Amino acid sequence: MRNLHVLVAEDDVALLQLAAMILEQDGYAVLKASDGAQALETSRVADRVDIVLTDVVMPNLDGFDLGRALAVERVGIRAVFTTALMGEVAKASAREFGCELLPKPYTPAELRRAVAEARPLQDPTEGGDR
């Protein structure tokens, strides 16, 4: 058991369920949210969240806005951003957080590796080396 708690934020219900299933099979405790606002609220009431796996494009609160809030509210939380839109803006935004941008579609092996290697979320408003 990895004994880590992962918050998965994904508005595609099928992908949310699949990612949660893969991570649970690997021993992670998984919390699920179908949009950024729900993920933020889940994080606020959860006793523990070690890693957030979040889609970038979601309703109510996008993944990068979720990351900005979590960088302040849960200092040290690790993160992986996912998106089907692998443009330079998305890549640059993920780099500002010091985190990986996992392209969709991803394989179970790619998901497992990205979560296992997730880095601490940096507050992009703090500046400094990334």
Descriptive report:
With 130 residues, the chain is an alpha/beta fold. The chain has one domain (5-122): Rossmann fold, CATH 3.40.50. Helix content is 40%, strand content 21%. It is built from five helices and six strands. The protein has helices at residues 13-25, 36-45, 63-73, 88-96, 108-116; strands at residues 5-9, 29-33, 51-55, 78-83, 100-103, 119-120. Strands 1, 2, 3, 4, 5 and 6 form a six-stranded mixed beta sheet that branches. α2 packs parallel to α3 (63-73). The relative contact order is 0.17. The mean pLDDT is 92.
Number of distinct helices: 5
Outline, from the CA principal axes? globular
Weakly predicted, low-confidence segments: none
CATH architecture grouping: 3-Layer(aba) Sandwich
Strand content: 15-25%
Number of DSSP-assigned strands: 6
Brief sketch in words of this structure:
This protein has 130 residues and is of the alpha/beta class.
Layout of helices and strands:
Elements: E1 5-9, H1 13-25, E2 29-33, H2 36-45, E3 51-55, H3 63-73, E4 78-83, H4 88-96, E5 100-103, H5 108-116, E6 119-120
